[in-house]
Structure formats: C-alpha cells, structure tokens
Amino acid sequence: MIDSPAKEIFAKDYRAPDFHIEKTELRFELAGDATRVTSRLTIARSATGEKRPLVLNGQDQSLVQVSVDDVILGSDAYSVDDDFLTIHQVTDAFVLECVTDIEPEKNTSLEGLYRSNGMYCTQCEAEGFRKITYYLDRPDVLSEFVTHIWASEGQFPVMLSNGNCTRDVVEDGVRKVTWHDPFKKPCYLFALVAGDLESVDDSFVTESGREVALQIFVESKDLDKCDHAMQSLKNAMRWDEQVYGREYDLDIYMVVAVDDFNMGAMENKGLNIFNTSCVLAHPKTTTDLGFQRVEAVVAHEYFHNWSGNRVTCRDWFQLSLKEGFTVYRDAEFSADMNSRTVKRVEDASLLRTVQFAEDAGPMAHPVRPDSFIEISNFYTVTIYEKGAEVVRMMANLLGESLFRKATDLYFERFDGQAVTCEDFVRCMEEVSGRDLTQFRHWYSQAGTPALRVAGQYDAESARYTLSVEQTTPPTPGQDEKPAFHIPFSVALVGQDGPLSCVLQQSGQEASEFVLDITESKQTFEFEGVPEAPIPSLLRGFSAPVNMSFDYSDTELAQLIRADDDGFARWDAVQTLAMRALADGSGDQSGLLEEAFRSLLKSAENGGADMAMLAMLLTLPNEMYISDVLLDLDPVEIHKRRKGLKALLGSRLREQWLACYRKFHSTGDDIDGSAMAARSLKNIALEYLMSADSSSAQVLAREQFEKSLTMTDVSAALRVLENLADDRNLAERVLADFYQQWKGESLVVNAWLAAQATSARDGVLDRVKGLMDHEAFDITNPNKVRSLIGAFCNQNPSQFHASDGSGYAFLADRVIELDKLNPQIASRLLTPLTRWKKRDQSRQELMKAELGRIKAEDLSSDVYEIVAKSLAVA
Ligand code: TRP
Ligand code: ZN
To answer: How far is CA 430 from CA 48, 244, 403, 419, 433, in A?
Structure first.
C-alpha cells in the first residue's frame, strides 16, 4: 500500500451500483466560451437493501440547477464538492435533471469535452465523462442515450454523437441535431463531435445482408488520406464475421480524426475517435509502419464493438477483459492480412523489451490489478499486450474450434452486460472441460516467469531429456509466486530441421510438442531421436516468459539455418548478436557474419519471406541491449552496436550493395511485397552507411531526393542524420525536409523524432531548441511524444548522460506538463522510474529528480507513478 494523499482503490471493495440509469438524455448548447449541458436521467434504485443517497461523480463543472421529477431542489437537498454531487434523499424511481456549465476551450487535459483545432470532441474512457456532467461514471451502469447538440446555424457543418441521427433542424438560427443510440452502454463509450469536417463515405453489406454506411470524417486537406483506413475497416468487418461470427449492429459506423488526442484511438459506440496518426495514410506522407499501424488500430477499435461494447467490463480492474482480448483479435487480423511470422516476432519483441521492463519495475502489476490510484496509469503494455498473450495461450490450449465455441458462448451469454475476466475464463473452461485453476495465476500474479532449460542427449538409447525450472521474481506487494501453468512449445532440430520423435510422457509422436509446465521443476523425455538435436524452444513465443538455455554459438547457427519456427530463428540471431556485443570484440567466431551472408543469399534468390528476412537482419536495439547487458554503460552500448554494424557492413559490403540494388525502386506501391522490399533495402542502406558513409551517402542522398514514399525518404533522412560524415549535408537535408513538409503535421513529427533520436552529440541542446520551434506545441501529445518522448525513450546514450542533464530535462517537462495534461505527463515519466537498472551514480541522479517532482503539487496520475517509483527498495 502506498502512503498517499490520493485515494487508492481496491478491487476487493467492488460493490454493485445502488442505482441504475435506464435512460440518459443530454443536451449540449455549444457556444463561444462556455458550454451548457443539461442532462435528464431516468434513475431507479437497484434491488439492494439499504436506502443510500444518490452519489454522482462530477469534476470541473459548475452546477447551475438540479431538479428531481421537475421540481428544482433547494441547496439543502444536495451537496456538491470537487468530485461528487450527493442528493441526500431520493425515492426508488425518479427523473434527475442537472444543468451544468463546462469550459471545453480551457480543457487541455484532452479528457471530457475539449477543443482540438477548432472542433469539439470528447474522450470519456476511463473516467472522463464526469467532466461533462454529473453521472454514475462506472462501466457497470449501462444506459440508453439520446443526445441533442445545439449550436448556432452554420457554425459546425458536422455535429455527431453515438447511434443514429433522428433529427436535424434549424429553429431561430439554432441548429438542433439529435442522435439516438439504441444499445445500452456505459458512459465511457459516449462521444460527441462538432466541427468543420468532411467525410469519405462508403458502405458495407453484412453477412446477413444489412447495409451499413461507413464514414471517415477529417479536415478537408486530409480527404486524400482515408483510403487505407476505409479498406482496413471493411477488411476488419469481414474478418470478424468469418473468424468470430460477429456482425456489426448499427446502420452507421463513423470514424473521426483529431489532432490532439492522448492515445491512439477510442471505440465509442458507432462513433470512433482517432488520433490522426492512426487513421490518415498516404504513401507520400506515411511510412509503411504507419500504414500497418492504421490497419491495426482501425481493426482494434472495430473489434471492440463486440469485445468491449456489446460485452463490457464490470469495473476497471477488468480492463484487460476488453483490451487483452481485443489486442489478441487485432493481432490475429494483422497476421492474416500480412506476414504471420513477422507479426508474431514484432509482438514478442515488444513484449520482451517494453512489457518485461514494466514487469520488473516499480509499476509492475498483474493483468488484472488489485488496486490503483489513477486508472489512466493502467492502460499499460501489461494490460494490453501481456493480456493478449494470456488470451493467446488459452486459444492455443483449447485449439481453434473449441476457442471459437468458447467465444461464441461468451458473446451470447454476456451480451449487453458488464462482466469480469473470470466470466471469460469460465467460458473457456466450460466449453473445453479443461481445469484452468492454475492458469488463472496469469491474471493475478505480476512479474515475468524465468524458465531455465537444460537438455541432454543419449546416443545409445536415442533419448533426449529436457529439464525445465521456473521461478518468478517478487514484484511490489507480491513476494510469493506459486508456479504458473506455462504452455511451452518445443521441437528437436537436427541437421535438416525438426525431427520426428516420441514424447514419453504422452506417447505422442510428432515433430513439435506443447509441454505443460505446471511445477517449479519438471523433466521430459523424448524417445527415438535419431541424431543429436538442438532444442528449438518457446516456439512461436508460446508464453510470455524469460527463457534461457545454454546454447553454443554453433548450435545457434544451426538453429538459424535449420529451424522452421520464425520466432526461434529470430531469437537465435538476436542471441548471437548479443554475444558479439557483450564480449566487445565483435563477431569473433564469424558465425554472425556467416548467418547474415546466407540470409542475404536467400534474399537474392527471392522466394523467402522478405519481411521476415529484414527482421532477421536487424540487430537488437540499444534499449533491449541495455536491459540485458546491465553492466554496460549506455554510451558504451551505443559504441559497440555501431561498431558491429560497421563490421557487418564492411565484411558483407558486396552483398548489401547487391541487396540494395535488387530491392530499391522508386515506386509507391504499398502491398506486402513492396513494403518488404523497402524494409530490406533500407536495412542494407544502413549497413552500407555504417561501413563507409562517404560512398554510401551518394545512394542515400539520391534516395532522399527521388523517392516517392515517406518510408524511403525518412529512412534516407535518418541514415544521413545519423551516419553521414558530412555534417553540412545532414543539415541541408533536414532543412529541405522541413521546408517541403511543414504543412503536414504528422510528417513534421517524424522530423522532430529523427532529431531527437539522433546518434550525433549534443542532441539535448537541439531538443531544447526545438521546443521553441514553430513546429512544436506542448499541448499536442503527438508533438510531445515525437520530441521529448523519443529523446527520453529512444536515445539511451544521451538521455542517460552521466551529468544527469537528460533526467533534469525530463523532470522539468513532467512538472510543466502535469499542469496541462496529467495523462501525458504521467506517461512521459516512465524512463525515470527505471532507475534500478542503472549504476549507482545514475540511480542517485534519477531518484533526486523523482524527489524534485514529488515535492510539487501533483495530479493523482503523476503522483502515483512518482510515489511508487520511490517506494521500491
Ligand atoms: N480504449 C482505447 C483503446 O484501447 C484506449 C483509450 C483511448 C484511452 N483513449 C484513451 C484510455 C484515453 C485512457 C485514456 O482502443
Ligand atoms: Zn482497446
């Protein structure tokens, strides 16, 4: 427990609501400096014993009038403070009317109703609705919403809310638009938009033959950047019908793009609101990674219509019920649309770097947390990505058809309800007959299990023995960690690939096995193993664990050559590379070079999964290296990685050059093979630049000037910035880039990030300078992430400068931002919380900055992170 002025909320204290709100009718009068909100709530007391008063959540608004059943209440009938409106005595059924004034133009928190580029928009999840009007702001209160939006005629061409538009009239110069959402929903799914927007329109015919209107609303200058989101939406709608049997339910599905947004996007019923960065895409302005992100986020929000909206969460401790499941769904969708192996490796890599670090830090929490101070702090990689892994493990344990049966049961049984992770797991159990008692630890226990694996081959009896030990380190508040149920996918790889053999425990004959690890120590015997094998372990990243096996370098090389599992091969390359980095003398055995040589050869021959090849040829990033090689200074890590790139670049110069020439084109296709070709050739360019910048910069420069895609232009910009000997050239290129793109805010973000993550010296001063540039705006989260976030998270050698200047800079920004946007301030803080990984002197510097922040008058968001970071021993 945390000693705190802010209130900590515990899952065990959950109590069903005393009242429910059958109907919610809202009227918004949008006007210059204040917005009047009138709410009429049809409320009934729940069938619980005690007759408690009605306590509504509400913040940052001024109460004008309250009435019950149309009788205005006197001030002694209610009380109001910073967080609640309490009506002392109410009957069992009544209509409550509240009139309040709010100030969207002054709302910089981007929570509740706010203005972005002149338009009005909302963000209510998790607890933002209470900034709009007094309400039971909790996900287990589901209500039918009718929303009236009033504004002077001609002011806003577009006025939207959830559901269907039932009225649009002008009376006395006031335009009055009414929306009705027939599906009951919690208020966190409410949305309102009013602005000068235009739409790209399309339609979709559902499996059962209903036509759904699809609309993407953007500023008129962005109308040419909506095709990809629209196509992704239609693909997602079809996919959810085919894979989960889920159809869309309303007659209209709207997506709105806004510039100022705290996260990626929000699944409001029938009216998704998106960060422009997750919806706009055009080959000229958007990288291939950006295209894939748009596809994934559009699908993610769409999938929430069932996993989140139709079936929602009982309380915020169940957040992963909707987020983990929906991330699993969008990951499978992306895998079906693109390269399955690449998607899996990307996700495993994200988990292993970012989530494992979270699980080892002061904010470590289970997929279903037990307590929080500020729920916004729990929209984490643990809830989302580890939560998705937990769903994936169950899907794999059950197999495709039983998992589908289980999700059918879940959606059917709980449609229109607010439920728990436990409800989800029980559907899995019921349908499969499997006992998931031990498996449930994945929901309740934080921390990353470590699996230590060893193997032994006995040639005479043709037996291979695999022994597995699991331990999980303690996390704040959880010292004891009973063993997890870990599905551990393995194969035994011979000279030509996985060998067929028999698992003694089950008698099963196969070339791949999923072992159920359930104890702290277990041994498995394989029989009929014809040759000495190399074990291929944790195939497909079958569980979110830290696996170690003492491979020799030549064994790793054999896995890279002969294994057929993409994750295991990639992991083998990463391990070889980590060894080359750890011993500091480069690739002594030459095995990494040899592996790269044959990978490049297969690229030349074509046929292989080119996108996967590009991943295999990418060295571990500095963040991951510094999480594994704890003793190494960030500056030293940077130097060694650079050295290894130069080495591999020069030893394989011909091959890289051939690869570059083969895959370079100036076309702007965005299909999978064109994207794969670009990623491969841009990696080649990076190695070539690392080896010899004076000759390679000619290529880079030409690519910068002639390419039609942002992928190629920005890749060239980055290598020139990071690696060109000719500093003037880098400066010129940066200036040209800005001149050309200063009108495209999202491209400018890439320009900011390229400078913030630069490998050159003196980046902190540049970042400080850029904060005064016309391109920067501290109230815009995308700008903050691109400049400040990128520097602190993706430039470890400079952020961790030994004089502590990076830490002080971050602390100053957090203090500054906390006054404007606590959610963003709190997220920005993450790198300072990881002080335990650093050497003694950096630890002191980091803790001092945390202490300096803690002395301020803080939001609960920042307070929680700072307090928890300083509380760990
Ligand atoms: N539910 C959103 C999603 O995952 C997340 C989200 C969007 C969010 N905006 C937010 C969470 C603001 C907290 C605060 O798709
Ligand atoms: Zn989500």
So the answer is: 30, 18, 11, 16, 5
Domain that holds residue 635: 570-741
Last residue of a domain, one of 714, 741, 768: 741
Given this model, what pLDDT does residue 873 score? 73
Do 613 and 466 lie in a common domain?
no
Look at the chain and count its residues.
Answer: 873
Residue whose tokens read 């209509």: 95
Q: Are 425 and 361 in contact (CB under 8 A)?
A: no
The predicted pLDDT at position 4 comes to 54
CA 639 from centroid of its chain's CA atoms: 30
Q: Using CB atoms within 10 Å of the CB of residue 127, give its burial: 0 to 12 exposed, 13 to 18 middle, 19+ buried.
A: buried
Percentage of the chain surpassing pLDDT 90?
A: 96
**Angle of CA points 837, 843, 844, to nearest 5°:** 170
pLDDT of residue 857 exceeding 70, the answer is yes
**Protein residue whose Cα sits closest to atom 3 of ligand 1:** 266
The candidate with the shortest Cα–Cα distance to 145, out of 284, 260, 254, 25, is 25
Q: Which ligand is nearest to the CA of 379?
A: 1
Residue 464 lies inside a defined structural domain of this protein: yes
Output the CA–CA distances (angstroms, integers) from residue 6 to 819, 861, 872, in the order listed: 17, 9, 18
The residue type of 691 is A
pLDDT tens, position by position, 376-425: 999 999 999 999 999 999 999 999 999 999 999 999 999 999 999 999 99
| Residue 243, in any domain of the structure | no
Residue that finishes a domain, picked among 557, 592, 617: 557
Same domain for 551 and 514? yes
Closest to 184 measured CA to CA, from 112, 273, 249, 253: 249
Band the pLDDT of 645: cuts 50, 70, 90: very high
**Torsion sign, CA atoms 44, 137, 300, 408:** negative
Give a yes or no: residue 135 inside a domain.
no
pLDDT in tens, 165-204: 999 999 999 999 999 999 999 999 999 999 999 999 999 9
Both tokens assigned to 342: 């690449």
- Tell me how far the alpha carbon of residue 535 lies from the centroid of ligand 2, in angstroms: 37
Phi, psi of 119, deg, nearest 5? -95, 155
How does the average pLDDT of the chain come out, rounded? 97
CATH of the domain at 541: 2.60.40.1840
The one catalytic residue in 267, 301, 332, 389 is 301
The closest-lying atom of ligand 1 relative to the alpha carbon of residue 375 is 13
**Residue 317 falls inside a structural domain:** no
Residue 2 has pLDDT above 60, yes or no: no
CA separation for the pair 616, 574 (Å, rounded): 8
Decide which of 854 and 33 is more confident. 854
- Phi then psi for residue 218, to 5 deg, are -145, 170
Instruction: List, as ranges, residues with CB under 5 A of the ion ligand 2.
Output: 323, 326
Distance, CA of 42 to CA of 23 (rounded, Å): 5
Residue 336, Cβ neighbours under 10 Å: how many? Answer: 13
Q: What's the rounded Cα separation, in Å, for the pair 681 and 703? A: 11
H-run or E-run covering 702 = helix 693-706
Predicted confidence at residue 584, as pLDDT, reads 85
| pLDDT band per the 50, 70, 90 thresholds, residue 5 | low
**How far apart are the C-alpha atoms of 608 and 704, rounded to whole Å?**
28
Protein residue closest via CA to atom 10 of ligand 1: 263
Encode pLDDT of 422-464 as tens digits. Answer: 999 999 999 999 999 999 999 999 999 999 999 999 999 999 9
As for how many domains the chain has, the answer is 2
Give the H or E element holding residue 149.
Answer: strand 143-152
State the Cα–Cα distance between residues 562 and 558, nearest whole angstrom.
Answer: 6
Helix (H) or strand (E) holding 719: helix 710-723
Q: Is there an atom of ligand 1 within 6 Å of 379 CB? A: yes
Ligand located closest to 328 CA: 2
Tell me 222's DSSP state.
G
> What is the longest distance spanned by two Cα atoms in the chain?
95
